Amino acid sequence: MDDIRSGIEGLAARVGRLIPGTEEQFLFIGSRLNEVYTEVEKISRQASSLVSMLDSSVMKGTIGRFREILERMDRHIGGSDRRFASGMAALNDVLAAVSRVGDPLANFRKIVKTLKILAISTKIESAQLKKMESDFVNLAGDVEQLSALIHDKSAGIESHRRSLMSLTEETLARIVSINEKSRGYISEVLGNIRSSIELLESRHDLSFSAADSMLGRFNATSKQVGEVVMSMQFHDITRQQVEHIRDVLTSMEGRLYVSPRGADDDRADVGPVTAELVAEAAIACELQKAQLSDAEKKFVHAVDAIVENLQGVVKNVFRILDDIQKITGGTDLIASTFLSNIESGTTAVIGRLEDTGRAEGEFVDAMGELSSAVSTISGLVDDIEEIGEEIELIAVNARVKSAHTGVEGAPLGVIAEAIWHLSIDATSQKITISDLLREVVTATQGLQAAVRERTADADSDSRSIIGELSGLLDELKGMNDGVVGLVKEIEGGSRNLSGLIEETIENISVHRDLKREVSGLEVLFDEVIATARRAVSHEELEKARGRSLDYIESNYTMQRERIIHQSVASNVIPFTGKERGGAAPPQTEEDHACADDLGDNVELF
Amino acid sequence: MTKRIMTVDDSVSVRQMVSFTLKNAGYETVEASDGQDALSKLNGSGVHMIVTDLNMPNLDGIGLIREVRSKAEYKFIPIIMLTTESQDSKKQEGKSAGATGWIVKPFKPDQLLAVVKKVLG
Q1: Which residues of B are less than 8 Å from A598 in CB distance?
Q2: Which of A313, A543, A544, B34 could disulfide-link to B58, CB 3.0 to 4.6 Å?
Q3: 3-class SS at A9?
Q4: Is residue B86 within 8 angstroms of chain A, CB to CB?
Q5: Residues of chain A contacting residue B12, judged by C-beta atoms under 8 Å apart
Q6: Domain of A518?
């Protein structure tokens, strides 16, 4: 009997030590759960802010304004193209007109040549007349000087004409180059910005579904935290069940204590250890083993559920991070985000618009240079006009001198006539050149005025576009910085959370410890039960099982304990409804009351 | 105004979970380890509701309800029993003592919050 009694005494002592050591870990988990929840709440708020930033009217407005500004840029670039085309056409006209000036200038060269011949002819005829009067000598000298003067003047005009042509060609080439460079680049950049905006829009659409998905994940996380809260209560539930086991074992051990009795032992209920009591001890141990096994299973299941749900929280948080990356474009957001593409594209467009503005300014300057060059040539044409008048005077002088010379001076009359014709020709050429140059001056001045006016309008438009683009760019930068900052914070928070939970889980060993201890206790229970069974007959055991065990049942506070009790008392395997060695009616765990939709375990009075 | 709820339980971990649930839902909490402790903390605490365990040392849940109901100030304060006990006889005992409702452990946070919302209005 002593073996049974001491066995039960040992069991009671070890069962009593089972739970107190486990509470510290549960309180640790509880405090960590608080930190986890705080972190999850923080991430939830950050994720909501992120979704709001990307999924709001602000984003729609930004996209709309970008589209509008792109259309304005298209119009602006179209206007710029037309200005360049019109400028180039006008410059080509100028170039053609300047080129045409070359023909009358060539005629001047012929006039010079003729004048030189006439000067020589005058000298020859004067010599034949042997009347080298000073008048004829002077006439020949005048004609010679005039040919030299016309040569110089026409050479000067030709030189300026060539410069003007060269300047016009250079201006044309520069304008073509600027236009092609800006046009090609801006088209490419605008294309990129358009693609980025489309991407931005698709992200915007995606953010709706991702936000829904995120909401679902946060709900799942709340549920997981709820499951942890529920599982945490199993410490108290198990503690109560284990305390009841300890109380039964202590009580049974007391009843088996028969000798030796000390002087201060005043227990009145202690009597001789009968076979009946030993059988009862065997059944009580069988019952407490079942209760302990159930308590251990519930406890281990609860701790497993805590671990599983905490791991689930981490998984969910990382899924939320995936959702966020879907919205923001993933790692692309931080490296070369589509927003950065827009930013760099916009910066490039602003730069090009500024370049185009400068180029148009240069165009105006070039027009100024052309006007100035044309004015200089016009001055030279006035000189030619004076030359024409001089030829005319010389022709008149020659005619007069020829008439004074009489019949012998007839050849000189021919010369005089030729000079006269030359004066007419020179005047005609001078008129042609003057008309052409006037045409150039008019075209150039008109072009300059038009370009200046249109460039001023374009410059104003360009400045307005640049201003709006800069503003939009600042908004995007702010938005981008906000998004990147939040994503980094969420990533950091997720990593902290993951670390916190992993560390918490690593420190949870209480279920393994309890399981190991309970396994040892089950062996001890089996030993005590086997010893007791050997001490009494099968009939005694079954009688004991059939007897009321009210004193044990009255200790229970949980329905589950009562079911296990009834199962053992009726020799049924707990929660299976199967009789040990036969069938038994099915049993339900608990009869639940239900209040509204609050759950089976809630009742409001 | 933030509502203040007292949680009474001899299990620290249960008090921790009740407080966790209520605080995260925006309620203030006061903790007591048994009925006696609860009574000592109740006076002048401005508590709007009590959530108590049944089996506790010194003074159990039923005793606590009776004591609280005897005070004019707390005659109508909602008191919810949160216990592992699910026997109808015990529930009747609690109801007779003046309990407002009964929740069998373990509770889900949503359940507790729904009950609190319902009884506090």
Answers
A1: 111, 114-115, 118
A2: B34
A3: helix
A4: yes
A5: 23, 27
A6: 2-50+217-260+283-334+503-583
pLDDT in the model for residue A580: 55
Least confident of A282-286, A565-569, B11-15: A565-569
d(CA A499, CA A312): 14
**Which residues in chain A have their CB less than 8 angstroms from residue B62's CB?**
none
| Same domain? A369 vs A428 | yes
Instruction: Indicate whether A591 pLDDT > 50.
Output: no
- Residue A201: inside a domain, yes or no? no
The CA-based dihedral angle spanning residues A560, A562, A565, A566, taken in that order and rounded to the nearest 10 degrees: -110
Using DSSP, state whether A556 is helix, strand or coil: coil
- Enumerate the domain spans of chain B: 4-120
| pLDDT score of A278 more than 70 | yes
If you measure CA to CA, which chain A residue comes closest to B118?
A604
Q: Which amino acid is at A391?
A: I
The total domain count for chain A is: 2
Predicted complex ipTM: 0.93
Q: Shortest Cα distance from A310 to chain B (angstroms)?
A: 15
> Do A153 and A188 lie in a common domain?
yes
> Are residues A508 and A487 located together in one domain of the fold?
no
- Residue A396 is inside which H or E element, if any? helix A338-405
Q: Are residues A323 and A235 located together in one domain of the fold?
A: yes
Q: In angstroms, what CA-CA distances link B85 with A301, A412, A555, A587, A601? A: 21, 151, 11, 19, 10
Same domain (yes/no): A306, A452: no
Would the CB atoms of B20 and A229 count as touching at under 8 Å?
yes
**Measured between alpha carbons, how far is A100 from A440 in angstroms, rounded to an integer?**
11
Distance between CA atoms of A179 and A356, rounded to whole angstroms? 8
| pLDDT tops 70 at residue A263 | no
Residue A33 touches partner B, C-beta closer than 8 Å: yes
> Of A332, A338, A329, A320, nearest to A62 (Cα)?
A338
What's the Cα-to-Cα distance from A159 to each of A166, A168, A373, rounded to whole Å?
11, 14, 11
- Is A265 among the domain residues? no
Tens digits of per-residue pLDDT, A181-209? 666 667 777 777 777 777 767 666 666 66
Q: Does B24 touch chain A (CB under 8 A)?
A: yes
User: Rounded distance, CA A579 to CA A585, Å?
Assistant: 9
Scanning every residue of chain B, which has its alpha carbon at the shortest distance from the alpha carbon of A302?
Answer: B106
Chain B positions touching A226 (Cβ under 8 A) are 108-110
Q: Minimal Cα–Cα distance from A234 to chain B, Å?
A: 7
Q: Which residue from B minimizes the CA distance to A558?
A: B85
**Mean pLDDT for all residues in chain A:** 78
Q: Is residue B100 less than 8 Å (CB to CB) from chain A?
A: yes
CATH class given for the domain over B4-120: alpha beta
What is the percentage of chain A residues whose pLDDT exceeds 70?
Answer: 80
Give the least confident one: A128-132, A152-156, A275-279.
Answer: A128-132
Residues A373 and A394 in one domain: yes
- Is A272 a domain residue? no
A597 is a domain residue: no
The per-residue pLDDT for A588 is 45
Q: Closest chain B residue to A604 measured between Cα atoms?
A: B101
Give B93→chain A minimum CA distance, Å: 12
- Please indicate whether, in this complex, the C-beta atoms of A557 and B103 are within 8 angstroms of each other: no
Q: B19 and chain A: CB distance < 8 Å anywhere?
A: no
Annotate B101-116 with three-state secondary structure: EEEECCCCHHHHHHHH
pLDDT band of residue B93 (cuts 50, 70, 90) is: very high
